[in-house]
Amino acid sequence: MFELLGITPQALFGQLLLGLINGSFYAMLSLGLAIIFGLLNIINFTHGAQYMLGAFVTWALLHYFGLSYWWALPLAPLIVGASGIVIEKLFISRLYHLDHLYGLLLTFGLALIIQGVLRNNFGISGLPYSIPPQLSGGQNLGFMFLPNYRAWIILVSVIVCFGTWFVIEKTRLGAYLRAATENPTLTGAFGLNVPLMITLTYGFGVALAALAGVLAAPIYSLNPNMGAELIIVVFAVVVIGGMGSILGAIVTGFGLGLVEGLTRVFYPEGSAVVIFVIMAIVLLIKPAGLFGRTA
Amino acid sequence: MNKTGFVLAALAASLMSTAVYADDINIKIGVLNDRSGLYADLSGEGSVIAARMAVEDFGAAEKGINVEIVSADHQNRPDVASTVARQWYDEEDVDVIVDVPTSSAALAVNELSAERGKVFLVSGAATSDLTGPACNATTIHWTYDTWALANGTGSAMVEQGGDTWFFLTADYAFGHALERDTSAVVEAAGGEVVGTVRHPFPGQDFSSFLLQAQASGASVIGLANAGGDTTNSIMQAAEFGITQAGQALAGLLVFITDVNALGLETAQGLVLTESFYWDLNEGTREWSERFAEELGTGNMPTMVQAGVYSSVLHYLKAVEETGSKDAEEVVAAMKEMPTDDPLFGPGEVRQDGRKIHDLYLFRVKTPEESEGPWDYYETLSTIPAAQAFRPMEDGNCPLVQ
Amino acid sequence: MAEAALKVQGTDVATPLLKVSNLEGWYGESHVLHGIDFEVRPGEVVTLLGRNGAGKTTTMKALMGILTKRKGSVVFDGHETIGLPARAIAKLGMGYVPEERGIFSSLSVEENLMLPPRVKPGGLSLDQIFELFPNIKERLSSQGTKLSGGEQQMLAIGRILRTGANLLLLDEPTEGLAPVIVQQIGATIARLKAEGFTIVLVEQNFHFASSVADRHYVVEQGKVIDTIQNAELEANIDKLHAYLGV
Q: Of A35, B6, B38, B292, which shows the fewest CB atoms inside 10 Å?
């Protein structure tokens, strides 16, 4: 059967694995977007820029302070997450009583500003960043050569996605978040500090984007536009999964990575649009998304 | 400006000009390129600076030629490029558009320049169609093209024994042209193309395509893409152990800014073709240092930016020579006069609009060989101007048939 | 509960736990409360009676701080609360059971029960709550909104009792419930009163109200227009019918 499709099973496994790696990025980024959308009701267009900032901070930590990848792994998400908290406090929090469109315009504008400033200072060709020595090299799996670093990406992504899902669905803190997402007014009337939860949630969502950025720094061209190119796909992932659905974002992220990987083999020209085609179909058949709760 | 002010200024200007020269010429140059996307570093603001340096070095003002330079971002999109070009030609009296990277955008501007009878000096774009089927009497293709790159890098790789090729091609006009021209060179040299994969432009993850290339067993993986697509491909080929396993990468269009982004650790050993390198000789060094100071980002000039300088300089010489800014007259003079400047050395503009000069085959130095920032290339060989570009009769350019 | 009871005894009965004076409130531009006045002394149960749209629920929201555009004075337990956000008012010990119960569908019964944080010592323990509402104990892992209406109401009351709040705002706790459940809720309220809780109740069903309350305030067009002691209810029944339009 595989031969009929013009590809060996070995090559197919290889491509599926690669799809899973890309899916890791989609899942982490769409997870952050979904959490933010759930609680803030804001489509965070700055997400791509914050992913890119994660990568830039990783580079800057090494370049200016000599701090290695292993320092950047916790520090970059903390730094970028903190900047997200400042942004939420200064700007986004003023827009909650207005139409969603204002939040979208604000975050989109912020993304353009962040990208523009970095482009002015660092150009567009990209900055060099190497894979940490502990993760260089790779394993020969028989059907493909899997670089250790790519395996690391899958590992981190699965842990982070599962951990986030667990905290939100299974813990007291998560119950607070779900309550605040469902009915912020009543949650506040019980004495819970909803504005603080919103601020921290935004910070966390942003930190997730930054963490994806740290993971991307050694393998993708590290330039100010790196997020802008990726984020459009991630938005499609969120729409397909269902706005605000945690599990939907994770499963769809990995799943679409696989679909895209297969398209790259069988119809490479279509790999840039396959996700959008799926999005259109899903929107026609199930407008709330695959995992969306219909209100 | 209010009406009175305008009249006064015009009067003053005419008085001044009559005082110095009887027939001042006002030239408006439009630098149209990528100012924010993946080609912004290799063209962008640097090309505007190069054009300005050409005007200053030429001493245009003293020679009675008043030059104004405008610039715009075409975002690598043909529709945006042709909208801006139309606006410039029709409403802002722009006489000449220069640079225009991204082949699809350049082809759009080329068509419009032919319609409007305006001069178009291409430096950034690569497709050899600009002096082939799409050639135009007032378009000159200055710096390099896909045929020249294919010929330079392609035949060098085949000579080294890389006789089976697999292409990773950016899925738009430029990638297609580069793939086509390189395939022709490879096949003419006795090599074979065993496969091709066309990737979306711009892309980010190339590992899937690289694995397909690996599975093909080809001895050379030809990267018929540019900018970030090329750097990503090269980085990921190293990561997936493809180069270590013995397949060679041929970066068919690699700019020095790409090498800088990759770092020598990753880029070392890469063989590439360019028409300019800042550290070629005294002339290029002197100019490049002035350029770098003006630009202020620490980047050295790319061949595209050098080409903008060289083309604007030659254009102004022709304007001075003819005392006119009529497009056909000026371009005819440009083709008649031999070119010579410190950056590209002696050369000429052919009847099909192809500017020819020497090309260089470079090898990227190892980190140990490099003696400082931007010391990246070792010259392997010089391809003489006469052999560097596609012979005029092979191009199917209607102007010369 | 001992503490709450002690407190009731120790407080000067003349000092209201809640004193509302000239409370005005707005939904956006529309002025809905035009000067509400009433007071509740510790350990009392009072009701707000009135027709639909009279402003009873809005009054509750204004007390709780959910209706943010408000002025006048609401003194609760010695604190002026007009300028405070809802979460700060909740922490002073005001517990809210909203209209239609406000059970979270994305939370399990247990999570719903554990959601409101403790604000004061002296809240009921889980065992005490399960003793009051045995049904809840069996359904802890169900989704909150899978419970029946009556069970949801019990959950909504139960989760507030956990927090140690000493003033309970119950907005139409009997709405849409079967008579037998209404009876059960009535008994619960009586028991809470006996244990020292202070309760403000919004009701349409004044038969129910009369069975549990000390005093009734009649609300009309955003104002309290009359006060009827429960003992005088019989004598005023015609007047009340006229107010409520029954």
A: B6
